C-alpha cells in the first residue's frame, strides 16, 4: 500500500535499509526519494505522499540499495566540489578526498593566472571527468586536456565535459599529449593505486561496482604512479606543477618515487579533510 506521507515513505525505506546493514539508511532514503520526486532532499518536508507510480519506483530503488548497489548508480549522479557529474556502471565515482587535491590545483591555477593568461592543464586518468569539470568551473580560462584509458569511462567523461572546451582523449596516459611535451603548467592525476594485498580491506560495494582498472595498478599499487613520474616530467615545463592522489599506506612510498626520480623538486605530501596523508605535489626541475 502507498504510504500516506513522504515522511512515512522515508521511515519505511530507512527501516529496510537499516535492516539490510546499510550504514546511512536515513540519508540514502532521503536522496532516493528526492531523486524519484525530482526535488532537493531539503524540500521533502513539504512534499505530499508519493503517487502509486512514484512509490513503485522508489521501492525498486530501495530494493537495489538493499542489495548493495551504490547510491550514485541509482541516481545516476555524483556531486564533486561545485559540480555534478553523470556516473554509473563502468566509471569510478569521484570521492571527497579527491576534492581537496583538486582544490590545491585550483588555487595554484588561479595564482598562475596572475602571470600566465591561459595556463595549460593536463588531467591523466580522468574517469568521469569530475576533476577537469571542477577546474573548468572554478578556474575558468585554462587550456585543458584530459585522457582516460577505459572506453566506458571515457563515454561518461565525454558527456560530463561537453561544452567545456576540455580536449578529451581516449588512450593510455603513458603516450598522451606528446605534442604538449615541455609546455604544460600543471598535471593532475588520481590514478589507480590500491595495493593488491589491500583487496580485502576494500568494501564489497566498491569491489563489485567500481571498475578494476580504476582501482588496481600492480602488486604494490604504485605502477601508475611510477608511470606518472615519467609522464609528468615529459609534459611539464621547468617549474610546472604536479599533484597526484595515493593511498594512506603510500604516504612514504608514493612521494619516494618522485624524490628518487631526478626530474622533481619540492616533493611534499598533503592530508585530506580527515587528516590522512592522501596526495603529493611536486615541481618539475
Ligand atoms: C581512481 S580512478 C579516478 C577517476 C577520476 N579522475 C576521479 O578522480 O574520479 C582512475 C582512472 O584511471 C583510469 N586509468 C587506469 N589506467 C590508465 C592509463 N594507463 N591511462 C589512462 N587512464 C587510466 C581508470 O580507467 C580510471 O578511470
Give a verbal description of the structure.
There is one protein chain. By secondary structure, the protein is an alpha/beta fold. The chain folds into two domains: 6-68; 88-284, 3-Layer(aba) Sandwich (Rossmann fold). It is built from eleven helices and nine strands. The chain has helices at 6-19, 25-37, 52-66, 71-75, 96-112, 130-138, 151-160, 204-209, 212-215, 223-235, 253-261; strands at 77-80, 83-86, 120-124, 143-148, 167-170, 184-189, 236-245, 264-271, 277-284. A seven-stranded mixed sheet has the order 5-4-3-6-7-9-8, with helices on both faces. Strands 1-2 form a two-stranded antiparallel sheet. Strand 4 (143-148), helix 7 and strand 5 form a beta-alpha-beta unit. Helix 1 (6-19) crosses helix 2 (25-37). It is elongated. S-adenosylmethionine (SAM) is lined by residues 92, 94, 98, 125-128, 130-131, 147-150, 153, 172-173, 190-192, 213-214, 224.
Key traits:
285 residues; alpha/beta; Rossmann fold; seven-stranded mixed sheet; two-stranded antiparallel sheet; elongated; binds S-adenosylmethionine; peptide chain release factor N(5)-glutamine methyltransferase activity; transferase
| Low confidence ranges | none
Number of domains: 2
Distance between the termini: 68 Å
- Top-tier CATH class of the largest domain: Alpha Beta
Amino acid at each position: 500500500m502507498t504510504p500516506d506521507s513522504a515522511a512515512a515513505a522515508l521511515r519505511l525505506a530507512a527501516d529496510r535499509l537499516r535492516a539490510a546493514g546499510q550504514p546511512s539508511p536515513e540519508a540514502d532514503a532521503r536522496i532516493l526519494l528526492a531523486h524519484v520526486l525530482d526535488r532537493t532532499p531539503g524540500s521533502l518536508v513539504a512534499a505530499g505522499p508519493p503517487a502509486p507510480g512514484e512509490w513503485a519506483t522508489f521501492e525498486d530503488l530501495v530494493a537495489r540499495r538493499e542489495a548493495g548497489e551504490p547510491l550514485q548508480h541509482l541516481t545516476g549522479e555524483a556531486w564533486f566540489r561545485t559540480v555534478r557529474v553523470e556516473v554509473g556502471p563502468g566509471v569510478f565515482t569521484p570521492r571527497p578526498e579527491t576534492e581537496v587535491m583538486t582544490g590545491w590545483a585550483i588555487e595554484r591555477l588561479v595564482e598562475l593566472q596572475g602571470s600566465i593568461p591561459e595556463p595549460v592543464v593536463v588531467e591523466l586518468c580522468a574517469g568521469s571527468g569530475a576533476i577537469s569539470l571542477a577546474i573548468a568551473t572554478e578556474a575558468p580560462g585554462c587550456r585543458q586536456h584530459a585522457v582516460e584509458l577505459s572506453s566506458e569511462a571515457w563515454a561518461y567523461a565525454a558527456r560530463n565535459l561537453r561544452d567545456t572546451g576540455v580536449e578529451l582523449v581516449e588512450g593510455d596516459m603513458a603516450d598522451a599529449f606528446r605534442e604538449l611535451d615541455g609546455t604544460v603548467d600543471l598535471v593532475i592525476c588520481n590514478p589507480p593505486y590500491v595495493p593488491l594485498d589491500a583487496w580485502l580491506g576494500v568494501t564489497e560495494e566498491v569491489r563489485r561496482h567500481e571498475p578494476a582498472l580504476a582501482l588496481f595498478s600492480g602488486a604494490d599499487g604504485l605502477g601508475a604512479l611510477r608511470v606518472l613520474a615519467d609522464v609528468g616530467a615529459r609534459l611539464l615545463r621547468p617549474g610546472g606543477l604536479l599533484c597526484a592522489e595515493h593511498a594512506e599506506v603510500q604516504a612514504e612510498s608514493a612521494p619516494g618515487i618522485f624524490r628518487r626520480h631526478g626530474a622533481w623538486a619540492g616533493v611534499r605530501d598533503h592530508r585530506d579533510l580527515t587528516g590522512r596523508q592522501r596526495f603529493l605535489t611536486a615541481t618539475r626541475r
